[in-house]
C-alpha cells in the first residue's frame, strides 16, 4: 500500500488510494504534508549549471531555446513547458511543449546510454501549449492554455500527424493524466474559478469520441465527490465550468499525475496539491503552504507534477525560489533541487526516464527572463525506487 491506503482502510473500512500521515480531528483524512528532512538530504552548492542538488546527483543541459539540440539539426522551441518521457526501443524520448503563440511541441530521442540521437517538431501552429500528459498507448496530449483551447494528440516520434481532439472539450486546458484502470483521462483547467474534468473515451485508446464530465463536490477541502456530464463540451455560448450546478471550483488548475488509484493535481492560486482517492470517491489536500507548521513552507508557486516509482511526488515551482520539491509517501515536503540565478523563470515539465534514473525538466525563460532563453535539463543520480 502507498500513502493513505492503510489509514483509510483502517478508519472507514475501505481500501482507498494513498498518502499516509496522521488523521485530522473528527475525519478520516490525513493532514497535508509538512516540513521535514528530504530522503535525499540537503542541497549542495550550485554546480556549473547553477543547480543545487543533493549529494550523488549531477546535471547536464540537453537543449536551449533558439539553439540546435546538440548532435541534431532541430532548433529547440521557445518557452519549453510541460513534458513527459516515452520508451523507444532500448532508449527513450522526452517531449516538451512550447508555451508561446504559435506554439506546439518538440521531442528529443536518447539511446540506452542517454546520448542524444535525434530531435524534431511534433506539433506546430497551436496556441500556448502549456502542460499535457502521456497516454498508455504512447502518445502525448498537448493542451492549449487559452480560452476555448483544444487538446492535441501527438506522436513523440513525429511520424504520425498530430490530431485535434475536439471531444475532450474546449476550455483553458492545462494538464492531462491517464487512468488505465477506469479508462479515463483527467483534465485540469487554468482558471481562478476553474473545474476538474474527466474524459471517458467511447473506446479506450481512441480519443475521437466520448463523454466529458466535471467533478461535483462541496466547498470544503475534503469530502466526497461525484461526476456529472458536461452538456456542451464546445463551451459556447456557456463555458464548460458554468454548465453544471454544483461543479467544484479550483483556483488555477495546473499539473496532474495519476498512480495507484489516486490522482493528484495542483492549484497555483492557493498553492495547494489536491488528491482524489478514486476507490472511495473522496478528495483531500495533500499539501497546502498555508497549513505548513514548523518553519517556512518549502513549496510555493506549485505547478507541474510528476511521480517516481517510490511513490514520491515531484512538484515544480512557477516562481517561488525555483525549486522542485518532493512530497514523500509519509507526508514530508522538502526541496529536491533549486535553480539559481533564474528568478524571472519557472520550472516546467518534470518527467522521469522509463528506468527512473533520470529526471528531465525545463527552466522556461532561463537567465534572460525571455521565452527565447529557455533551458532543458537532465538530472541523473540515485533516485530511490522504494519509499
Full CATH superfamily name: TolB, C-terminal domain
Specify the helix fraction band: under 10%
Order of helices and strands: HEEEEEEEEEEEEEEEEEEEEEEEEEEE
Q: Got a strand count?
A: 27
Largest sheet: 9 strands, antiparallel
Q: CATH topology, what is it called? A: Neuraminidase
- CATH class, please? Mainly Beta
Return the structural class: mainly beta
Counted by DSSP, the helix tally is 1
How many discrete domains? 1
Based on Cα principal axes, name the global outline: globular
Largest sheet, order of strands side by side?
12-13-14-15-16-20-19-18-17
N-to-C span: 11 Å
Cα-based radius of gyration, to the nearest Å: 19 Å
Region (Disordered): 363-387
InterPro entries: 6-blade_b-propeller_TolB-like, PhoX, TAT_signal, WD40
Biased composition (Low complexity): 363-374
Organism: Streptomyces xiangluensis
Amino acid at each position: 500500500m502507498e500513502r493513505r491506503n492503510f489509514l483509510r482502510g483502517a478508519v472507514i473500512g475501505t481500501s482507498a488510494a494513498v498518502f499516509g500521515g496522521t488523521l485530522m480531528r473528527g475525519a478520516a483524512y490525513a493532514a497535508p504534508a509538512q516540513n521535514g528532512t528530504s530522503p535525499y538530504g540537503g542541497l549542495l552548492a550550485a554546480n556549473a549549471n547553477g543547480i543545487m542538488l543533493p549529494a550523488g546527483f549531477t546535471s547536464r543541459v540537453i537543449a536551449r531555446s533558439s539553439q540546435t539540440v546538440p548532435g541534431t539539426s532541430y532548433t529547440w522551441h521557445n518557452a519549453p513547458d510541460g513534458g513527459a518521457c516515452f520508451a523507444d526501443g532500448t532508449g527513450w524520448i522526452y517531449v516538451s511543449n512550447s508555451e508561446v503563440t504559435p506554439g506546439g511541441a518538440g521531442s528529443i530521442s536518447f539511446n540506452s546510454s542517454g546520448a542524444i540521437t535525434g530531435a524534431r517538431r511534433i506539433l506546430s501552429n497551436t496556441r500556448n501549449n502549456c502542460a499535457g500528459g502521456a497516454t498508455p498507448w504512447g502518445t502525448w496530449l498537448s493542451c492549449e492554455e487559452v480560452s476555448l483551447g483544444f487538446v492535441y494528440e501527438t506522436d513523440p516520434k513525429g511520424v504520425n500527424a498530430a490530431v485535434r481532439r475536439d471531444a475532450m472539450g474546449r476550455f483553458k486546458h492545462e494538464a492531462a493524466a491517464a487512468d488505465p484502470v477506469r479508462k479515463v483521462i483527467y483534465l485540469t483547467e487554468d482558471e481562478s474559478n476553474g473545474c476538474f474534468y474527466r474524459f471517458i473515451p467511447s473506446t479506450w485508446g481512441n480519443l475521437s469520441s466520448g463523454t466529458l464530465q466535471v467533478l461535483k463536490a462541496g466547498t470544503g477541502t475534503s469530502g466526497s465527490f461525484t461526476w456529472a456530464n458536461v452538456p456542451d463540451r464546445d463551451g459556447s455560448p456557456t463555458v464548460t465550468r458554468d454548465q453544471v450546478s454544483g461543479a467544484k471550483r479550483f483556483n488555477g488548475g495546473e499539473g496532474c499525475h495519476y498512480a495507484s488509484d489516486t490522482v493528484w493535481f495542483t492549484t497555483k492560486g492557493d498553492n495547494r496539491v489536491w488528491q482524489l482517492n478514486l476507490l472511495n470517491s473522496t478528495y483531500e489536500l495533500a499539501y497546502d503552504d498555508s497549513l505548513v507548521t514548523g518553519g517556512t513552507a518549502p513549496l510555493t508557486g506549485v505547478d507541474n507534477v510528476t511521480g517516481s516509482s517510490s511513490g514520491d511526488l515531484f512538484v515544480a515551482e512557477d516562481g517561488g525560489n525555483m525549486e522542485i520539491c518532493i512530497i514523500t509517501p509519509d507526508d514530508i515536503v522538502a526541496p529536491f533541487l533549486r535553480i539559481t540565478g533564474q528568478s524571472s523563470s519557472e520550472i516546467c515539465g518534470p518527467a522521469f526516464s522509463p528506468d527512473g534514473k533520470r529526471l528531465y525538466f525545463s527552466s522556461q525563460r532561463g537567465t534572460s527572463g525571455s521565452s527565447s532563453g529557455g533551458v532543458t535539463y537532465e538530472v541523473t543520480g540515485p533516485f530511490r525506487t522504494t519509499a
